[in-house]
Amino acid sequence: MKKRINISVFKEFFNSKKLGSILLLVCVVTSLIIANSGYAASFADLLAKTIGFKISAFHLDYSIATWINDGLMAIFFLLVGLEIKRELVEGELSSLKKASLPVLAAIGGMLVPAVIYALFNKNTVTANGWGIPMATDIAFALAIVALLEKNVPSSLKIFLAALAIVDDLGAILVIAFFYTEQIHWNQLFIAGGIFALLLVFNFFKVKNLLLYLIPGVFLWYFVHHSGIHATIAGVLLAFTIPTNETAELSPLEKLEHALTQPVALIIMPVFALANTNITFVSGMVEGLASPLGLGIILGLFLGKTIGITLMSFIAVKLKLAKLPTGANWKHITGMGMLAGIGFTMSIFIAMLSFSDAAHIIESKFAILCASVISGVAGYVFLKSVSKKYAKTAVRN
């Protein structure tokens, strides 16, 4: 059978993000309203309510907030892992030539923001938050590109999606290696055994998804109890799901198809509703000028823009990669701005970075401001160069 990339799943993924981003925005606004109303305490109590059960040493009794951040977000990371694997097998990351530009751009877009944050927060109590501005929110970023429609080359949509996926992988590695406090090796050993079993299933081309998903639940449980953040289990599970390079629908694509809308339309909005509850207090705006606030805002907006544009420029000049079809350097710069929308992933890392509630709230507010600045600036900038797009595309 002739090999060809099955892009239908990508199209569905991209299109669903449009509606998902609207719901995400609605939940952000709703969460902010609740947090600054008379219902703030009741909402906090609801999130702190414990649900689940405990049988001997096996327990699943956690707060609603924990179920959202460790449980539902594990499903989100499962989808991210599926996207990464699909891109590695058959998409924009499937060959060195294809992967070079988005991979190198993503690396630049992670390193420069982290350095900017570290410079502002050196030797402070907030130094541990250097991972916050490294992340890109793929939902909001792609939604803004969708609003631009034909004003940007379609190749840039794939470039940004691939870049954001590599960015997600980087964020996953950062969480795994730098935001894990204590390892319980016996639990990790059991999780490793389950992961090995799933790899065996993959090796023997087992295609029944239940034989992956049922052990995957136990993988999540033991990873959670090992001390490594439970969301990592979603990525590990994703990498064991079989896929292929043909037009035949693979188990990976079936699962991705099944998860795309629930994640975009339920999980991410619920996460935003539960975690964007910023109570505005006096001095909060002034706090944006603190090392923490400046590190996040400048890291996300300037750091992402500079890192992605500069690394892309170096890669192209060294002939390690080439620009996306029909794109020019202004397009790449605009994509760098949009990548500064850190939002959900940045908030997630912020909650792992700090134990102090004041720092978490200040981080969320700075992330919200940086994401709005990046989104508006990226949209306006790309819109302003759209009239020159056709002429520039011919020259390149």
Rg, please?
21 Å
Task: Name the helix and strand elements from N-terminus to C-terminus, one letter apiece.
Answer: HHEEEEHHHHHHHHHHHHHH
Uncertain regions spanning at least 5 consecutive residues: none
Question: Termini, distance in Å?
Answer: 35 Å
Q: What shape does the CA trace take?
A: globular
Q: Can you give the mean pLDDT?
A: 86
Strand arrangement, largest sheet?
1-4
Main beta sheet = 2 strands, antiparallel
Structural class: mainly alpha
Strand content: under 5%
Measured as a percent range, the helix fraction is over 70%
Summed up, the helix count is 16
Extended strand count: 4
Describe the structure.
The chain has 396 residues and is mostly helical. 71% of the residues lie in helices and 2% in strands. The protein has 16 helices and four strands. The two termini are 35 Å apart. 46% of the residues are buried. The model has no long low-confidence stretch (mean pLDDT 86).
What keywords describe this structure?
mainly alpha; 396 residues; two-stranded antiparallel ribbon; single chain
Layout of SSEs?
Layout: H1 8-35, H2 40-48, E1 50-51, E2 54-55, E3 58-59, E4 62-63, H3 64-90, H4 96-121, H5 138-148, H6 154-178, H7 185-203, H8 210-226, H9 231-238, H10 251-275, H11 284-287, H12 291-317, H13 329-338, H14 343-353, H15 357-384, H16 389-395
Antiparallel strand pairs: 1-4, 2-3
Helix pairs in contact: 1-5, 1-10, 3-6, 3-9, 3-10, 4-6, 4-12, 5-6, 5-15, 7-8, 8-9, 12-13, 12-15, 13-15, 14-15
Short description:
By secondary structure, this protein is mainly α. The chain has 16 helices and four strands. It has helices spanning 8-35, 40-48, 64-90, 96-121, 138-148, 154-178, 185-203, 210-226, 231-238, 251-275, 284-287, 291-317, 329-338, 343-353, 357-384, 389-395, and strands at 50-51, 54-55, 58-59, 62-63.
